């Protein structure tokens, strides 16, 4: 049963079709007491149909259901029969629930007003419902609204948690990639030291052997032995280092550079609940990968810090502007203080340190701190001289 429930959850049309079919059967069971059975059966079939697509086209289906309910009143008046007793009219409450839970309170309130008009017209035209029936209808609609509020809040919470987990996963993968990149940098540095040292020794010994080859063969022989030994040691170290570098990396962990990468990052933060205003000016897609990566990381770390520390309802403004010979990056948020601690996205407190180190490597400048109005601002300037190096 649980598997079937999960299967239906991913197929709303199937679940809503089952609901419509149940209402159709229940409604059709009352045809025996209807004076005009043909008209009754027609509405028994028509009334549940909008429920099938209620979660795909909620506004359109709610309007259709409301029109069908009003037609029940009109036809009931024309044929002299009370058609307001259709069980399928429960679908009006289902539509109210759908609008409030999946669209918003404003649409639900508008629909509720029209429902009130429909009930009023039915009361005036058919003198139905009266007394306790009106109270029952009001209770049903109130329960539908309340249930929609609870489920809507749960759906919003689930969506926010999913978005934050996506950000946390992305942040975890980014940190893993940066750790791998740092290790590769260390290996490259060691490789440079080993090879540079070995080659320098071999060049000096080769020059000495060439000079002493005829005048002092023993010295030349020792020099050649030194060259051979140094070469073997360097080759062994080189093979070890290259073996470490032969590690497959996941391309999806690498950030997408340029405007597309920044836009993707901003979209992800928006899904996590951070309102971001993005402004990109100048040609940002043809700068060197180092500078592009630096811009991406500064924006990423700043927005992550905003999401963690800017309090309730945070907002950030991102400005990336290419000038004549540099890139100006500015991220300002609404300020605030932490109101909660989410272990899924907790950081190690090294964000600003990492940004300063990255900017320093690129030869730029970085400012991070509060403004006079209490907001937090990160401003970086990265030179473009690497493009012509």
From TrEMBL:
Residues 290-386 form the Histidine kinase/HSP90-like ATPase domain. SUPFAM superfamilies: ATPase domain of HSP90 chaperone/DNA topoisomerase II/histidine kinase. Signal peptide: none annotated. GO terms for molecular function: ATP binding; phosphorelay sensor kinase activity; protein dimerization activity. One of its GO terms (cellular component) is membrane. The keyword Membrane applies. Gene3D superfamilies: 1.20.5.1930, Histidine kinase-like ATPase, C-terminal domain (3.30.565.10). It catalyses: ATP + protein L-histidine = ADP + protein N-phospho-L-histidine. Keywords: ATP-binding, Kinase, Membrane, Nucleotide-binding, Phosphoprotein, Transferase, Transmembrane, Transmembrane helix, Two-component regulatory system. This is histidine kinase. It comes from Nocardia mangyaensis.
């Amino acid at each position: 049963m649980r598997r079937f429930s999960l299967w239906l959850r991913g197929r709303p049309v199937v679940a809503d079709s089952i609901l419509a079919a149940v209402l159709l059967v229940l409604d059709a069971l009352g045809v025996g007491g209807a004076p005009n059975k043909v008209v009754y059966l027609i509405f028994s079939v028509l009334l549940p149909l909008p429920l099938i697509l209620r979660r795909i086209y909620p506004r359109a289906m709610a309007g259709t259901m409301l029109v069908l309910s009003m037609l029940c009143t009109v036809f009931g008046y024309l044929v002299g029969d009370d058609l307001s007793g259709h069980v399928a009219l429960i679908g009006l409450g289902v539509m109210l629930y759908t609008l409030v839970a999946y669209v918003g309170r404003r649409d639900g309130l508008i629909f509720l007003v029209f429902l009130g008009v429909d009930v009023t017209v039915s009361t005036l035209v058919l003198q139905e419902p009266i007394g306790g029936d009106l109270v029952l209808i009001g209770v049903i609609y109130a329960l539908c609204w309340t249930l929609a509020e609870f489920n809507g809040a749960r759906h919003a919470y689930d969506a926010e948690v999913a978005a934050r987990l996506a950000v946390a996963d992305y942040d975890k993968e980014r940190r893993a990639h940066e750790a791998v990149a740092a290790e590769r940098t260390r290996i490259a540095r060691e490789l440079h030291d080993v090879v540079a040292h070995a080659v320098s020794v071999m060049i000096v010994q080769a020059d000495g052997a060439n000079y002493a080859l005829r005048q002092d063969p023993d010295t030349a022989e020792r020099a050649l032995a030194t060259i051979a030994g140094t070469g073997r040691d360097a080759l062994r170290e080189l093979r070890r280092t290259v073996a470490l570098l032969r590690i497959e990396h996941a391309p999806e962990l690498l950030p997408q550079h340029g405007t597309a990468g920044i836009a993707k990052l901003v979209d992800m933060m928006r899904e996590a609940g951070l309102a971001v205003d993005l402004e990109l000016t100048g040609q940002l897609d043809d700068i060197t990968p180092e500078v592009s990566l630096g811009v991406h990381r500064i924006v990423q770390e700043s927005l992550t810090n905003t999401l963690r520390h800017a309090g309730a309802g945070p907002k950030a403004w991102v400005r990336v502007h290419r000038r004549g010979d540099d890139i100006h990056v500015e991220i300002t948020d609404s300020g605030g203080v932490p109101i909660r601690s989410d272990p899924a996205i907790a950081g190690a407190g090294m964000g600003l340190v990492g940004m300063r180190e990255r900017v320093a490597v690129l030869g730029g400048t970085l400012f991070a701190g509060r403004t006079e109005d209490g907001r937090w601002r990160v401003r970086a300037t990265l030179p473009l001289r690497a493009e012509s190096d």
